[in-house]
Amino acid sequence: MGSSGKDFGQELSDQINDVLSRLESKEMFQSTWDIVAFAIFFTFIGVILLLAFLVLIRCFCCCCECDSPRSYNKIPRKKVGIDNMGLEP
C-alpha cells in the first residue's frame, strides 16, 4: 500500500511539472488529439452550463402563470360508445 501512495505522489508531481513546462514553453497542445480533447471537454462544459442556465431561467421566470392549472386549455370530453343499460342496477 505504501509504495502505491509514493507512485501516486510521483505521478502527480510529474503531471504538474509537465503542465508547468507546457505553460513556460507556451505550447499547451502537443498533438491534434490534445486539441480535440480540449474542444470536446469545453463543449461538454458549455452544454452543462447552458442547461443549468436554462433551468435557472425556468425556475425564476417572471411569468409563473404558465404553471397554473387554469391556464391549460381544458378540452371538453365527450362520451364515447354505447351505454349498456343491462349493467345498470
TrEMBL record:
Keywords: Membrane, Transmembrane, Transmembrane helix. One of its GO terms (cellular component) is membrane. One of its GO terms (biological process) is regulation of cell population proliferation. The keyword Transmembrane helix applies. It comes from the Eukaryota. The keyword Iron does not apply. It is found in: Membrane. The chain crosses the membrane at residues 35-57. InterPro entries: SIM_Modulators (IPR053081), SMIM5/18/22 (IPR031671). It is a single-pass membrane protein. PANTHER family: CLCA DOMAIN-CONTAINING PROTEIN, SMALL INTEGRAL MEMBRANE PROTEIN 22. This is Small integral membrane protein 22. It comes from Pogona vitticeps (central bearded dragon).
